Amino acid sequence: MVNTMRHTQPTQLAQTKVVLLEKTLNAFREATGVVGRVVLMEPVVEQGVRADALIELEIGGQARQYLVEIKRIDRFAAIGQVKNQLARYPQTGLLITNRMTADTADKCRELDVQFIDALGNAYLHGPDWFVLINGQRPAAKEDMQLGALEAPKAGTAGALRMTFALLCRPELLNAPYRQIKQAAGVALGAIGGVFLDLNTRGLTTGGQRNKDRRIVERQRMIDEWVTNYPIKLRPKLNARRFHAENPDWWKGLDVGRYEAKWGGEVAAERLTGYLKPNAVTLYMRPKNLRQNLTKLVVDNKLRAAPNGEIEVLEAFWDFEMDGPADRVPPLLVYADLLATMDPRNFTVGQMILEQQINAPEATA
Fold it and tell me: What are the domain boundaries of the chain?
């Protein structure tokens, strides 16, 4: 069910998405003869989730509606988040993007993420029809980067650190800047700009200096953070990889001895009990990391391996959450799972989103 009421004015970002959506529908019509139209921009769907658009396509003589997510897809990591996001929609979900590479299109088909790009490439299907178009290329000098789809501060590493802290600890919204700096590990001078950006895009209320800030588009903030984290922040966390001859080395391990916390599949298994980890992810405090990492490697007989199943990253936050102290916040577990592109992890990730991240006590 789609709620057609809108309570905010269209932002510049929304207007940019309208342009991209219309361009995409035109390209799809030229490639297939299928006529599409925009029914509504930014509809609110069930459970307060907002889609980017509701569109209608005339396929096989029937009007078929889709709830649309408009994103730039330049890495495989973003597809997992899109898949889970579309799965929450009460109607068929559709990804609209600027340009889908052949490899990324293959991954979308593998994960059954239906899409149309601005060149007319597409993957759509129904009970009695199927559309697959690939190989459409941009005209010479045509600008397909669509950088405006990403707000200037939304995808920076500093903004992601701060947004993570705000989502995990909402009381920081109205905390002194120095407290936010400590929790998020960001420069003091950058905090006001991030608040202004979030407010301008309608994700929060209040400005740089207001004391009544609150999050009004929490799910959108979560989706945006999970999409950008593996692309913009995770690569900066100085990942180290290792291999263990004993696959059960981590079971019963007290990671607190190494100033570390479980992330990824191990944390997910401990949160839900529904996953047998194939990979081990640890986040370590940057302070004393070298000593703690050496101790971890020696104590557990690990060896360096570029493609090892064990990954150690630097922790990028400085606050504690309620619950066991040996695992990272659920939001980071969710992001780690979706970044694996492993379908078995998507289901568990959705459980964590619903039961841990969006539980009433987590959103209060």
Answer: 12-147, 157-234, 237-363
